[in-house]
Design brief:
Helix content: 40-55%
Oligomer: single chain
CATH superfamily: Glycoside hydrolase, family 3, N-terminal domain
Strand content: 5-15%
Number of helices: 16
Order of helices and strands: HEHEHEEEHHEHHEHHEHHEHHEHHH
Amino acid sequence: MSAEIVSRWNSLPIVMERTKAISNLRKQVSQLLIMGFDGTEMSSRLSSLLTRLQPGGVILFARNITSAAQTHELLKDCQALVSTPMFLCVDMEGGRVDRLKNAVGPSPSAADVFATDDPKLFRKHGKVIGESCRALGFNTDFAPTVDLALEASRSVMSSRAVSADPKETVVYARQFLRGLHEAGVLGSGKHFPGLGEANLDTHHELPNVKKSWKKLWKEDLYPYRVLRREFPFVMVAHAAYPAVTKDSTPASISKKWVNDILRKKIGYRGLIISDDLEMGGVLQAASIEHAAVEHIRAGGDLCLICHEEDHITGSYETLIHEAERDRKFAQRLTESAKRVQTQKRKLLASVRWRAPGADARPPSTPKLERLSRQLWEFSEQVRLQTIGRKEQE
């Protein structure tokens, strides 16, 4: 046997180990991505992307939803291409943020429901929304919003925020979460550490919240402190808090906010997810790919990228490259990947969710009619109770 052959033979275990390490790294990075896309049905391009990336989840928006049957089929097709169960996500708050109104029927806003001053209706709000989500195939709803309804953000948040009082906000959020869970759907607190004092829309700009740490802790952070064991997810905002970080770094990529405050000081043990990394608020500080790296480096677990395929694949490759380059970052990434895998099993089991089989059928016409009627009756109940309260006042 020649020396060259011996050398190659001896190096084979090293090559195999290296190949295995790369494969494991790619699997870990895949679990850190929740991706959005265009279209209302499975396409060859989307099929290729899902097969290649094997993401931790997908998110649908109004642009992806035309009917209950179509939505159910699309989610089923997405899950069929991914070997592990996914978080099948939607933003569904009711009111202004209502992705399902054309598929099932409109739902009242959080502020409208809160105006009834009836915790039973707060819980029912979560349940009727959750039942619609679950019927269409979703297992995760990025709601409720726990931003405070303060004057500074009124034009931006409007009916999405329920109260300027953090204790009242907790009452609504806790009941809404319980209603979601009863329906078999996971919820999320957002937008940490709070957009109540943000007078700019983070979809387009980076708000600079000039509020003291003492006031933030007492007010905006109160819901996260009280509900830290009840939020399956916490979504981190693209807003800057210079009194805390001493600079204009968005909270979503700030180690001070994500690791030091949310994870350590507050003691949150669930999954930390970024707001959409394609939003203008974070893009003023970093490219999407760089923001994905910095969110994980800061202590985040999941990167939400809601639209462009190039941004999704670019972030995926950049995370891999950074983990190969920086051993400390690789350890941080591995920690989040393990947490996502562990929490995913636990959370999806808690809402009794199983990946749909090939024979899974969309909700029947009678069930859709029942859900639609239920939403209408709930909206009427909210409207009439609010009128009754105003008359009493």
